[in-house]
Protein backbone atom coordinates (compact mmCIF):
# COMPACT_ATOMS: atom_id res chain seq x y z
CA UNK A 1 0.00 0.00 0.00
CA UNK A 2 2.84 2.39 0.77
CA UNK A 3 3.99 2.17 -2.84
CA UNK A 4 0.65 3.57 -3.99
CA UNK A 5 1.43 6.86 -2.26
CA UNK A 6 5.06 7.25 -3.30
CA UNK A 7 5.73 9.78 -6.03
CA UNK A 8 8.45 12.17 -7.17
CA UNK A 9 8.26 15.79 -8.27
CA UNK A 10 10.51 16.84 -11.16
CA UNK A 11 12.69 19.83 -10.36
CA UNK A 12 13.94 22.19 -13.02
CA UNK A 13 17.74 22.05 -13.37
CA UNK A 14 18.10 25.80 -12.84
CA UNK A 15 16.09 25.56 -9.63
CA UNK A 16 18.01 22.52 -8.45
CA UNK A 17 21.30 24.31 -8.95
CA UNK A 18 20.23 27.47 -7.18
CA UNK A 19 22.36 28.57 -4.26
CA UNK A 20 21.47 30.90 -1.46
CA UNK A 21 23.26 34.30 -1.57
CA UNK A 22 26.49 34.40 0.39
CA UNK A 23 26.39 36.02 3.86
CA UNK A 24 28.59 38.80 2.49
CA UNK A 25 26.11 39.53 -0.30
CA UNK A 26 23.16 39.46 2.08
CA UNK A 27 24.99 41.86 4.38
CA UNK A 28 25.62 44.18 1.41
CA UNK A 29 21.89 44.12 0.58
CA UNK A 30 21.03 45.06 4.14
CA UNK A 31 23.54 47.92 4.16
CA UNK A 32 22.25 49.24 0.83
CA UNK A 33 18.67 49.04 2.10
CA UNK A 34 19.70 51.19 5.07
CA UNK A 35 21.69 53.54 2.82
CA UNK A 36 24.98 52.71 4.50
CA UNK A 37 28.12 52.79 2.34
CA UNK A 38 31.54 51.67 3.55
CA UNK A 39 34.74 53.18 2.18
CA UNK A 40 37.20 50.83 3.85
CA UNK A 41 39.77 50.60 1.10
CA UNK A 42 42.30 52.74 -0.74
CA UNK A 43 40.63 55.35 -2.92
CA UNK A 44 40.99 54.50 -6.61
CA UNK A 45 38.77 54.28 -9.69
CA UNK A 46 36.40 51.94 -7.85
CA UNK A 47 35.25 54.91 -5.75
CA UNK A 48 33.11 55.88 -8.75
CA UNK A 49 30.72 53.11 -7.67
CA UNK A 50 29.95 55.20 -4.58
CA UNK A 51 29.06 58.11 -6.86
CA UNK A 52 26.65 55.89 -8.77
CA UNK A 53 24.97 54.79 -5.54
CA UNK A 54 24.57 58.38 -4.34
CA UNK A 55 23.03 59.38 -7.68
CA UNK A 56 20.63 56.41 -7.55
CA UNK A 57 19.47 57.31 -4.03
CA UNK A 58 18.88 60.90 -5.14
CA UNK A 59 16.93 59.70 -8.19
CA UNK A 60 14.85 57.39 -6.03
CA UNK A 61 13.95 60.21 -3.65
CA UNK A 62 13.16 62.59 -6.52
CA UNK A 63 10.97 59.99 -8.23
CA UNK A 64 8.91 59.71 -5.04
CA UNK A 65 8.82 63.50 -4.54
CA UNK A 66 10.25 63.15 -1.02
CA UNK A 67 11.06 66.57 0.50
CA UNK A 68 14.74 67.00 1.31
CA UNK A 69 14.09 67.37 5.03
CA UNK A 70 12.25 64.00 5.08
CA UNK A 71 14.75 61.97 3.08
CA UNK A 72 16.62 59.09 4.70
CA UNK A 73 20.27 60.21 4.96
CA UNK A 74 23.00 58.36 3.10
CA UNK A 75 25.68 57.33 5.60
CA UNK A 76 29.28 56.92 4.46
CA UNK A 77 31.48 55.05 6.94
CA UNK A 78 35.17 55.74 6.36
CA UNK A 79 38.30 53.77 7.22
CA UNK A 80 40.74 54.57 4.45
CA UNK A 81 44.40 55.53 3.94
CA UNK A 82 43.39 57.87 1.12
CA UNK A 83 44.40 57.45 -2.50
CA UNK A 84 43.92 59.13 -5.86
CA UNK A 85 43.27 62.86 -5.47
CA UNK A 86 41.28 63.40 -8.68
CA UNK A 87 38.81 60.63 -7.79
CA UNK A 88 38.64 61.92 -4.22
CA UNK A 89 37.72 65.44 -5.29
CA UNK A 90 35.19 64.11 -7.79
CA UNK A 91 33.38 62.13 -5.09
CA UNK A 92 33.58 65.07 -2.66
CA UNK A 93 31.83 67.22 -5.28
CA UNK A 94 29.05 64.65 -5.73
CA UNK A 95 28.58 64.41 -1.95
CA UNK A 96 28.25 68.19 -1.71
CA UNK A 97 25.79 68.36 -4.63
CA UNK A 98 23.59 65.58 -3.27
CA UNK A 99 20.11 66.83 -2.42
CA UNK A 100 19.61 63.78 -0.22
CA UNK A 101 21.56 64.46 3.01
CA UNK A 102 24.88 62.64 3.31
CA UNK A 103 26.45 61.98 6.70
CA UNK A 104 30.11 60.98 6.87
CA UNK A 105 31.69 59.02 9.70
CA UNK A 106 35.35 58.58 10.58
CA UNK A 107 35.21 55.03 11.89
CA UNK A 108 38.95 54.39 12.31
CA UNK A 109 41.20 56.36 9.97
CA UNK A 110 40.43 59.17 7.53
CA UNK A 111 43.87 59.78 6.09
CA UNK A 112 44.86 62.16 3.29
CA UNK A 113 42.11 62.08 0.64
CA UNK A 114 39.80 60.21 3.01
CA UNK A 115 39.84 63.27 5.27
CA UNK A 116 38.55 65.27 2.28
CA UNK A 117 35.61 62.88 1.99
CA UNK A 118 35.00 63.18 5.72
CA UNK A 119 34.71 66.97 5.63
CA UNK A 120 32.55 66.94 2.48
CA UNK A 121 29.56 65.47 4.35
CA UNK A 122 26.47 67.50 5.17
CA UNK A 123 26.89 66.23 8.73
CA UNK A 124 30.19 64.81 9.94
CA UNK A 125 30.98 62.45 12.80
CA UNK A 126 34.00 60.79 14.39
CA UNK A 127 34.27 57.67 16.49
CA UNK A 128 35.96 58.38 19.86
CA UNK A 129 39.31 56.80 18.94
CA UNK A 130 39.37 57.66 15.25
CA UNK A 131 42.27 59.55 13.67
CA UNK A 132 42.39 61.92 10.70
CA UNK A 133 45.47 62.86 8.70
CA UNK A 134 45.83 66.19 6.92
CA UNK A 135 48.83 66.67 4.65
CA UNK A 136 49.77 67.64 1.10
CA UNK A 137 49.87 64.05 -0.08
CA UNK A 138 52.57 62.29 -2.06
CA UNK A 139 53.25 61.76 -5.72
CA UNK A 140 55.78 60.25 -8.08
CA UNK A 141 56.94 61.70 -11.38
CA UNK A 142 58.44 59.83 -14.32
CA UNK A 143 59.12 60.33 -18.00
CA UNK A 144 61.01 62.90 -20.00
CA UNK A 145 62.16 66.21 -18.50
CA UNK A 146 59.20 67.97 -20.09
CA UNK A 147 56.76 65.35 -18.79
CA UNK A 148 58.13 65.56 -15.25
CA UNK A 149 57.87 69.37 -15.32
CA UNK A 150 54.26 69.16 -16.55
CA UNK A 151 53.39 66.53 -13.94
CA UNK A 152 54.93 68.65 -11.19
CA UNK A 153 52.92 71.70 -12.22
CA UNK A 154 49.72 69.68 -12.30
CA UNK A 155 50.47 68.16 -8.91
CA UNK A 156 51.03 71.64 -7.45
CA UNK A 157 47.62 72.69 -8.79
CA UNK A 158 45.97 69.64 -7.20
CA UNK A 159 47.66 70.30 -3.86
CA UNK A 160 46.37 73.88 -3.90
CA UNK A 161 42.84 72.68 -4.71
CA UNK A 162 43.02 70.26 -1.79
CA UNK A 163 44.37 72.94 0.58
CA UNK A 164 41.68 75.43 -0.42
CA UNK A 165 39.02 72.77 0.09
CA UNK A 166 40.26 71.97 3.59
CA UNK A 167 40.34 75.65 4.59
CA UNK A 168 36.85 76.29 3.17
CA UNK A 169 35.28 73.26 4.87
CA UNK A 170 36.87 73.33 8.33
CA UNK A 171 37.94 75.73 11.07
CA UNK A 172 41.55 75.45 9.93
CA UNK A 173 42.79 78.89 8.90
CA UNK A 174 45.37 79.60 6.21
CA UNK A 175 48.18 80.30 8.68
CA UNK A 176 47.64 77.06 10.58
CA UNK A 177 47.35 75.07 7.36
CA UNK A 178 50.56 76.54 5.94
CA UNK A 179 52.36 75.64 9.15
CA UNK A 180 50.98 72.13 9.43
CA UNK A 181 50.82 71.00 5.81
CA UNK A 182 54.53 70.23 5.64
CA UNK A 183 54.10 67.64 8.39
CA UNK A 184 52.02 64.53 8.78
CA UNK A 185 49.29 66.21 10.86
CA UNK A 186 47.35 63.56 12.76
CA UNK A 187 44.21 64.67 14.56
CA UNK A 188 42.43 62.84 17.38
CA UNK A 189 38.65 62.81 17.56
CA UNK A 190 38.74 65.81 19.90
CA UNK A 191 41.02 67.69 17.50
CA UNK A 192 38.80 66.80 14.56
CA UNK A 193 35.94 68.40 16.47
CA UNK A 194 38.06 71.41 17.47
CA UNK A 195 39.17 72.13 13.90
CA UNK A 196 35.78 71.48 12.35
CA UNK A 197 36.56 68.29 10.46
CA UNK A 198 33.53 66.82 12.24
CA UNK A 199 30.46 68.22 13.95
CA UNK A 200 30.15 65.58 16.63
CA UNK A 201 31.90 62.66 18.31
CA UNK A 202 29.82 59.48 18.33
CA UNK A 203 28.67 58.43 21.79
CA UNK A 204 25.69 56.25 20.84
CA UNK A 205 25.78 53.22 18.53
CA UNK A 206 22.36 54.19 17.18
CA UNK A 207 23.86 57.32 15.62
CA UNK A 208 25.41 54.91 13.12
CA UNK A 209 22.09 53.26 12.35
In summary, what is this structure?
The protein is an alpha/beta fold and 209 residues long. It has 8 helices and 7 strands, in the order H-H-E-H-E-H-E-H-E-E-H-H-E-H-E.
Keyword list:
209 residues; alpha/beta; seven-stranded mixed sheet; 43% helix; globular
What does this 3D model show about the protein?
With 209 residues, this protein is α/β, with parallel strands linked by helices. It is 43% helix and 16% strand. The chain has 8 helices and 7 strands. The protein has helices at residues 13-16, 23-33, 48-63, 85-97, 113-119, 145-169, 174-180, 189-194, and strands at residues 36-39, 74-80, 102-111, 123-126, 131-134, 185-187, 200-201. Strands 1, 2, 3, 4, 5, 6 and 7 form a 7-stranded mixed beta sheet that branches. α5 (113-119) links the parallel β3 (102-111) and β4 (123-126). α3 runs parallel beside α4 (85-97) and α4 (85-97) packs parallel to α5. The relative contact order is 0.12. The model has no long low-confidence stretch (mean pLDDT 86).
Q: What is the percent of helical residues?
A: 40-55%
The major pleated sheet works out as:
7 strands, mixed
Order of helices and strands: HHEHEHEHEEHHEHE
> Segments where pLDDT lies below 50 for 5+ residues?
none
Q: Kindly report how far apart the N and C termini lie.
A: 59 Å
Amino acid sequence: MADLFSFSVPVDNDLANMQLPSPELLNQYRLTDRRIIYIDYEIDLSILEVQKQIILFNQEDDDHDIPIEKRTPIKILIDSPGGYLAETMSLAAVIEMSKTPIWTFNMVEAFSGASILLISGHRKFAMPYSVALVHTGSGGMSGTHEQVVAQTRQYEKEVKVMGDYIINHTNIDQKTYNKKKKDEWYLTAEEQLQYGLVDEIITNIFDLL
